[in-house]
Amino acid sequence: MSQASLHVLQTCPFCWKVRGLIEHLGLDVDEVQVNAMRTKKELAFTNGWNKVPVFTDNGGEVVVDSTPIMMYIDEKYNSSGLSKNSGDERFDNMLAHIDEVWKRATIPILYGSLGAALSTTRKVSKLEKFGFFSRRLYAWAGFPIMWGIIAKKRVKKDGRTPKKLWHDLLTEYTSSFEGEAFFGGTEPNLVDFAAFGYMRSISPFKQFKVLEEHKDGMTWYNLMKQQLK
Fold this sequence. Notes:
Glutathione S-transferase Yfyf (Class Pi), Chain A, domain 2, 2 domains, 4 strands, Glutaredoxin
């Protein structure tokens, strides 16, 4: 049997979700960084999916899409210990909410202003796998697109500043813990790892300081970091 692998982009929030779960379970998984400009070619084995993350287990089975990957890993390697409440309304609704709302919130905080967009694209160009010319092209030509076209539209549609948006999300989330340390109770569950992944994906960037100003959110976040092996 071959070693399990995870194809990733270093700054992809969906990849951070799966990476956190793998770290928590202490799995021996080979992380393969994909060239950000050549995903179609490097992920050709997915038969048209062409997006990260992609998980291949040690038997060669390929699983795509971050939440299904997390469910698969938890079932195969952890007897569904983190997703045992799957099917319950509280669990399912919050996981769907995290995957829909939190994923859309990552763009505004990273690219919501011209300065933030420039800083983010330059950081991404250093962290991701690019060719010599494509790295420089992305660093200096990517930010007007991310800020001027994508981020501005999302901020305008939501109506909140990126800080207000994230603080509202963290307040809403931590308020749902019912007096416990995690959404999962005394121990985190799969919903916690999904939310943690989105938040953690912002940590390499200077905009993370905005999230650090949310006390309850950071208390939970730091407890989640302690769950990693």
